[in-house]
Amino acid sequence: MLNGITKLTLVYFTALCSIPYLSKAQQSKVFPGADETTSSRSQYFSWINNTNEGSTEKQTLINLEFFSWLHSEYGMALDIYAFDAGNIDGKGYCGSIVSERFKQQFPNSFNNIYKAAKAIDTRLGVWGGPDCFGNTVQEEKARLEMMVELCKKYHFALFKFDAVNGNLRTEKQDAFIEMMQQCRKYSPDLILLNHRLELGKGLPYATTFLFEGAETYIDVHMPNTATATHHRQGALSRGLVPGLQRLTEDHGVCISSCLDFWDDDLILQAFNRNLILAPQIYGNPWLLRDDEYATLARIFNLHRRYGKILVKGKILPEDKYGEKALSRGDGVTQFITFRNLEWTPKKITLKLDEEIGLTTGASFEVRQFHPTEKIIGRFKKGSSVVVEVAPFRSYLIAVSADEIDELGIKGCDYKVITDIAGKPAKIQLLGLPGTKINVQLSPSKRRFTTATLDGKSINALIKGNKIEVDFPGTPLKHAWHRKLSTPALTSIPEDAETLYEATCFAADNNALEVRSLERSGATKIPEVQAARDAFFKQAVFIERNIWDKNLFDGDSTTGFDVNHSWGQTANGIFRLDLGEILTLDELILTTGREGDIHPLKTDEGAWVDISTDLKTWKTLRFLTGRKMSVKLKGEHVRYLRFRNNFEHLLEVEGHLNGQPVERKKWHASNLFQSWKVFAADKAWKSTFRLPEITEGSYLCIALNGKHGVEGAYAALKINGEYVGTPDRSVSFPSNVWEYPLAKADANYTYYIPLKTYMKAQQMEVIILGMKGQPAEFKPEVWVTTHNPPYVSKELVLQ
User: Would you say the pTM of this structure is higher than 0.90?
Assistant: First the structure.
């Protein structure tokens, strides 16, 4: 039986293939900007960098500087930069480039933006409504002239027409057709994205339909459907377009929330589905870590180099290669994608013949390009090559009868960091700790005269010689990814409340983008910092009060709210973590109005529980009001949980001896339920020790099955210390930036980062089940890392 998404896909597919309004002869005369053999175009679009209020010239120029930096630093080319909603048209309204609203956002129209984009060979695109032709001849003419001007004057490459702005009226279909015909006189390759529209006889002028009707904002529109080592299992499980039709849009890869393993997502978008827009990203790519930009550029650059041969795809036998495995190429060179959506590694045997699309050649070079790069070797036709796909990862491999002309190292895994003609090439050599490996430079068209490894000369390498590379560290004795235990039902522990509170205080309710910023850490790249600042300092982001740091910034115009947008409800309480045990005389909470003290009123008594260790709590009483004072009188305190919530807080301050105390370590949350509401009546426990802890490793506590929405929480206990889980899939409740967080009643996975002091210590994983919620799940505990625990050395070739 087809699910709803698949049915929707087939509806669009059928509509595009069978237009009832035009004869076949008429249809054939329409060229919709691309066809099935057109090479993909790389794209960024600005949705959730801004929401329906739109962007500005200033913010856009800053974003383009980021892409200009990627271009100069890594040679990454971006074909299209597309504005999303709110720049000309918006949700429910039609705009104009002569309106006062547009002029405020773009005082120089698109002139400066067009010049900045053109400097890096990038063209513009824009979101809008398919109609907006008004009700008079004059209004229709004005709309047509404006859209044509975008192509004539600014050479726009893309229109994205969305049902959010309304549909196309039957009586305006001719105007729509004329608009597209006139626009394509100046931009013959103009792509028209059809987002859920019925265009009638204008449908042949659309380039694409929206695959699965889906958006890909992780844990907002696209959450996990099963337990996994990260948040992108749902995205990695996406299917193939019927008939491998490329004139489709899959909404690209969202780089804004839940960032880990974004590159696996992008590999499938670019090399597996390989639609007309690929690689396609949106959101806030400036939230990645500094070391990840080389990977982003490498994916874009590889796809661009081989784009012409990727237009033809071949589905591989599922029983041999796994679900949705695909080979793309020209018969001489094939790029093949696999995926593994299970907890254990998957070995795949690759047959080097027609089965994977090879039609010529007596022998083939086999080279891995993701998740690391590796020269596997050269083999005769008909040979079998075994590759291993790590759990919840995608995998990209190339097989070619020709020599693959890419920088490469024989003997070890590696990552190409920079490969730009005329500039030094940089490659990270990767090896497990305590190993020694002989490596050799693979021949390529690039020629070098010097080579250094971590700054030391190794010119023998560029002469074709092998050199030994020593990767320091202690050899691993255990698999870095493995199952540790199966927690068993147990009695409710006496410290269940402490375990629950440990996770509530370890996690947060900030916007998902704030979590991404904290995940990636500070940047040393000015263009990245500028783009981050432009996003977080835009007025609308600040005004939505979705970051707890607003409570501790000394600015009474900012705050932290319970976000009720889109009908979202919350029944949590306000918690405050001071980050360390402090001695305070008074805590002052400032709010804006009586209605913000939910559900209390001014001058009503309220209660707060305070603790230094989450185990022992003391209750204090205070009076509510616009400025509330909790008298601590020299109490030692770190954790505070208020028995009620505050709809809107402006500031939280602490005083000792009449002086304000430092608040850099302070954090707050406002969406987690009180312990009394949670009321655990079930528990599971397992105990184990980890004899070694590799860098970047973490625990995955997988709840396979039904537990109810927010119906089960997990925490860790180590020698009397309580360690909460700061991250979970599906994400912990969030005061969201764009749209309500996805909710799930099954298959949570809790993630706990491991630290070196935990080595060899007895660990207890405890899972608590909420009263009245189902306990139809089987818990498992796994240890894993974001990437294999490689040691890296930098090779520089000049």
Answer: yes
